[in-house]
Write a structure and sequence with these properties.
About 30% of the residues lie in helices and about 25% in strands. It has about 190 residues and is an alpha+beta fold. A two-stranded antiparallel ribbon has the order 1-2. A hairpin with a 5-residue loop joins strand 7 and strand 8. The radius of gyration is 21 Å and the shape is globular.
């Protein structure tokens, strides 16, 4: 009687996510994020916060999937996002984002925020580079937050995008346990 061969310890199984899987994850994150943006009034109506949300999807090309509109309209528009193909020109996306925001909010007393969801990696810089385009956005009064799209990020690239102080947080959750000790969960 013969025993079947046991698997060799050198056997490694690699699985790459299908194209577009990251896009699906970003779409879901963006939906949850937008749902949490609620209009608010403070100090008996003296201060009012209202959100107008727009969206630009990018790869080597950029697609405005939602003009500035209500939260509900923006969320409906998320369904139109599809995988655009390989390559990332983040600098062009930053320049286009700046143009869209300044065109929509010229000379208004609006606080302008941009959330850029990316891994910081680029395949080209045909629009002048991320740092230059991000600086231009900041000069136009846009505060940029860079959110890591995956566990593999180019931290230097993320820092070029984000407004100071820029921090890149590892995927690690810290919470206080009993007795004040810190417990860590790693993804």
């Amino acid at each position: 009687m013969s025993n079947p061969p046991s698997p060799s310890p050198e056997t490694i199984s690699l699985q790459e996510s299908p194209p577009g899987a990251l896009v699906d994850n970003i779409r879901e994150f963006t939906k949850v994020f937008a749902q949490r943006l609620t209009d608010e009034e403070y100090r008996d109506g003296q201060v009012r916060i209202t959100w107008s949300i727009g969206g630009l999807h990018f790869s080597q090309r950029q697609v405005v999937f939602s003009q500035f509109s209500t939260r509900e309209s923006f969320i409906r528009s998320l369904n139109s996002i599809t995988y655009l193909g390989k390559g990332t020109y983040t600098d062009c996306a930053l320049c286009n984002m700046t143009a869209e925001m300044t065109r929509h909010f010229p000379r208004q007393k609006a606080a302008l925020f941009s959330v850029v969801i990316t891994d910081g990696h680029v395949t080209g810089s045909p629009c002048g580079g991320m740092k230059s385009c991000a600086e231009n956005a900041r000069e136009q009064g846009i505060k940029i937050f860079a959110v890591a799209a995956s566990r593999t990020v180019d931290e230097a690239g993320m820092r070029e995008i984000a407004n100071p102080p820029a921090e890149v947080y590892p995927r690690r959750l810290h919470r206080r346990g009993r007795g004040g000790r810190t417990a860590q969960n790693h993804d």
